[in-house]
Structures are given as C-alpha cells and as structure tokens.
C-alpha cells in the first residue's frame, strides 16, 4: 500500500514526511494501523549518525502502538482488531538467547539496524524507488506498518494508545534498568542521571523498588521539579553538583545504584558516573553514545579496589512479552504514572518540532498521535 512516513536521507538533515510503499504481510507478519508513537532520543541518534543504520533512507520510530488490520499465514496468537505494542527488540522465544531467558538479547536483534525483514530477508518498504531501512525493523513514524510477529505484543484494549506506545521502548527500558539491571533493593540510595522518558521511568522503578533516597540529575530546572513530583528526594543540575551533594547526604558512601539515562553518552563522562557509585555498587549505562566511540575515561584501580560494577543494558534487561503487559497493568492499578510522562502530542508533520522540543528540554516524552488526517 501507499502511505507516508518520516524519513532521513542523510545525516543531520530534518525528518522528511513523504510517500512510502509498504508490502503486504507475508508469512509470520502482521499489518498494523498505527495510533501513537513515542519520540525516543534513540531516533535522534539516527539523525546525528550516532546510530548508523545499514543504509539510507531510514524510516524512523521504534516506540509504537496500534491495531492489527491484517495477519499473514503462520500468525496464530494475533488477530485482526487486536490492540498491540511494538517492541523495539524482537523476541522469538526460540533462539538460544531467548531459551536462556534473555529475551531482550534475542538473536533476531543482530538484524536490528540492517533493514531486511525477519520473515524473508527482503526490504518491505520503498521510497522514491529505493529500499527503506526501518528503525529496529519497525518504523513507527508511519501511520501503517507491516512487521514480523516477534516484534508485536498484544495488550488490553482499554489502555489508551498514547500511553501504550511508551512501553515499546522508553518506559520498559528505564523501569527495567532500575528494577532488573540495577536490581534496586529496598533501602538502596539511587541516582538517575538524565530525566527524559527513559530516566523518568527509571526513577519510578527506583521508587517502586523501595529506594531510600532517589537523586535525580538534569540541567533543566522544570525536569528537576517534575522529578521531585515523581518521587525524587534530591535534585541536582549536573554531575559535579551531584558528586558534592550525594557525598554530603550519604556521608561519603555515594549511591548504591546509578542509572545513566542522559541523551547522549560520552566515554569521557563515564569516570564521573562511576565516582557517583558506592563501593560494591552498580553503575548502569542505559544511555547510548556513538557506535564508533571506543574511548572511555575510567579509573581502573578505583573500579577494582572499590569492587564496583559497570553494566550496560538493552531494553532494561526485560522480556517484551512479559514486561509490556505487566507495566501496563501497573499503570491501570495506579502504580506507574504514564499519563504525566506525556508532555506534548504532535501530528506526524510536526515531528521536527517535537524533536526540537526534546532537545530544548521541554518534554519528558513527546508522542505522535495519528488521526485519520495522517492516513
Ligand atoms: N539501552 C537501551 O535499550 C535504550 C533504550 C532507549 C533509549 N536509550 C537511550 O537512553 C538515552 C535517554 O533517552 P531518552 O529518550 O530518555 O532521552 P531524552 O532526550 O528524553 O532525555 C535525556 C535527558 O538527559 C538530560 N541530560 C542531557 N545531558 C545531561 C547531563 N550531562 N547530565 C544530566 N542530564 C543530562 C536532558 O536534559 C534530558 O532531560 C538516550 O541515549 C537513548 O538513546 C537506550
Ligand atoms: Zn527508544
Ligand atoms: Zn530469540
């Protein structure tokens, strides 16, 4: 079918809304009418080149929710009319990683940036006669999608789409960074560095896990105020202020768990993040920098002698098929505040305004809400 999507054709250019052609679902694929898409910082890395896809043009978007409108052969667990969330990590349930319980490390993830469909290895989207590379095999910046079933998770239809889309990436990643990867225990002191969509979810994970103190760090004053409303106990404008403040509050012990959710991770800053971490503690790097960045500043002796852990995480260490419905049921039970994480809603045509607002610190999360105008 012909529809439209937000594409980039070269680095550091604005998103371009234009016609795309999407193939019909083949074996193991479903077609989805998109209702909402979160605007995660990772799509901005596509623009800067921090995350280079296999080629251009790139169709952005990896945090979405919609309604199944067609199912291909071989799809048994999804039906027309189902409300679904797209997980930015496909999870097949069968590969060695999935079998080992590491569903966020599914072997299908190897093709995440390469653009070729899981189903048959072909390119299913074209624009201006060229193959399109969809972000993480999805491309939620389009009112329609055709995707492999391993990226699709059925949800309760009573959940608003604008809320549901957030658990396709940011919320599940942030919450899991706190509760799964950092394994926050009751009484831990926790620092969250960077209060965007991922950081605010990490903060909520820390609060729910029973953190004693939650230190939130962000240069934007409004975000620090929001962090306090969401349960932070102390806020700081930058890591230097946090180093001094946390040292004072904890009598030099520092934070048992540190979760780094800044927009762009730089190797030069890692030592400061580890300095915020208590002896025996864990510093979780959730933020992403340039894929080409291999230089890290780190005091190795202090890492060893203070027995600290420096830990990466993807999708918060979670299982899409378990965590997505689980977090949405916590939302329904009033245990997870997703409504107040949605700061602004945009039309697809306003995507560049939305990303500028993100960079200007105006949004916890901005989302695209599709309407019939977009279709
Ligand atoms: N590991 C994963 O699976 C995964 C998944 C999703 C997103 N991410 C990454 O997580 C990061 C956060 O994503 P997001 O969508 O929440 O971004 P965002 O832009 O919404 O939020 C980033 C926040 O960090 C703040 N910030 C920037 N520099 C800072 C600094 N030096 N100190 C303290 N705060 C700082 C900004 O003011 C902003 O509030 C990005 O790098 C994104 O690519 C990783
Ligand atoms: Zn994301
Ligand atoms: Zn798998």
From TrEMBL:
Reaction(s) the record says it catalyses: a secondary alcohol + NAD(+) = a ketone + NADH + H(+); a primary alcohol + NAD(+) = an aldehyde + NADH + H(+)
Oxidoreductase among keywords: yes
Cofactor(s) needed: Zn(2+)
Keywords from the named record: Metal-binding, NAD, Oxidoreductase, Zinc
One Gene Ontology cellular component annotation held by this UniProt entry: cytosol
Primary enzyme class: oxidoreductase
Segments forming domain Enoyl reductase (ER): 15-368
Record-listed E.C. numbers: 1.1.1.1
One GO BP: formaldehyde catabolic process
Xref: InterPro entries: ADH-like_C, ADH-like_N, ADH_Zn_actinomycetes, ADH_Zn_CS, ER, GroES-like_sf, NAD(P)-bd_dom_sf
CDD domains, per the entry: Zn_ADH_class_III (cd08279)
Keyword NAD among record annotations: yes
GO molecular-function terms, A-Z: alcohol dehydrogenase (NAD+) activity; S-(hydroxymethyl)glutathione dehydrogenase [NAD(P)+] activity; zinc ion binding
Family: Belongs to the zinc-containing alcohol dehydrogenase family.
Protein name according to UniProt: alcohol dehydrogenase
Source organism of the structure: Mycobacterium talmoniae
The organism's taxonomic lineage, starting at the top: Bacteria, Bacillati, Actinomycetota, Actinomycetes, Mycobacteriales
């Amino acid at each position: 079918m012909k529809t439209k999507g937000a594409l980039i054709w070269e680095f550091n250019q604005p998103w371009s809304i234009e016609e795309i052609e999407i193939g019909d679902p083949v074996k193991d694929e479903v077609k989805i009418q998109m209702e909402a898409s979160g605007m995660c910082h990772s799509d901005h890395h596509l623009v800067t080149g921090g995350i280079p896809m296999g080629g251009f043009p790139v169709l952005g978007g990896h945090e979405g929710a919609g309604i199944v409108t067609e199912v291909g052969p071989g799809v048994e667990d999804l039906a027309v009319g189902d409300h679904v969330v797209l997980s930015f990590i496909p999870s097949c349930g069968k590969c060695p990683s999935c079998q080992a319980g590491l569903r966020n490390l599914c072997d299908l993830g190897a093709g995440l940036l390469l653009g070729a469909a899981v189903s048959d290895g072909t390119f299913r989207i074209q624009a201006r006669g060229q193959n399109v590379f969809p972000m993480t095999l999805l491309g939620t910046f389009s009112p329609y999608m055709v995707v492999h079933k391993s990226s699709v998770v059925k949800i309760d239809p009573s959940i608003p789409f604008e809320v549901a889309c957030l658990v396709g990436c940011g919320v599940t990643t942030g919450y899991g960074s706190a509760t799964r990867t950092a394994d926050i225990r009751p009484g831990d002191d926790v620092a969250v560095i960077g209060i965007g969509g991922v950081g605010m979810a990490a903060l909520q994970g820390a609060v729910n896990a029973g953190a004693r103190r939650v230190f939130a760090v962000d240069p934007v004053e409004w975000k620090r105020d929001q962090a306090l409303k969401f349960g932070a106990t102390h806020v700081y404008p930058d890591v230097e202020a946090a180093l001094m403040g946390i040292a004072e509050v904890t009598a030099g012990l520092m934070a048992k768990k540190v979760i780094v959710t800044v927009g762009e991770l730089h190797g030069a800053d890692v030592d400061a993040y580890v300095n915020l971490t208590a002896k025996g503690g864990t510093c979780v790097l959730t933020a992403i920098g340039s894929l080409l960045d291999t230089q890290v500043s780190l005091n190795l002796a202090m890492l060893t002698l203070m027995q600290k852990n420096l830990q990466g995480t993807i999708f918060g260490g979670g299982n899409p098929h378990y965590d997505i419905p689980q977090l949405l049921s916590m939302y329904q039970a009033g245990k997870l505040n997703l409504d107040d994480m949605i700061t602004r809603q945009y039309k697809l045509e306003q995507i560049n305004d939305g990303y500028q607002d993100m960079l200007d610190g105006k949004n916890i999360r901005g989302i695209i809400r599709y309407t019939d105008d977009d279709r």
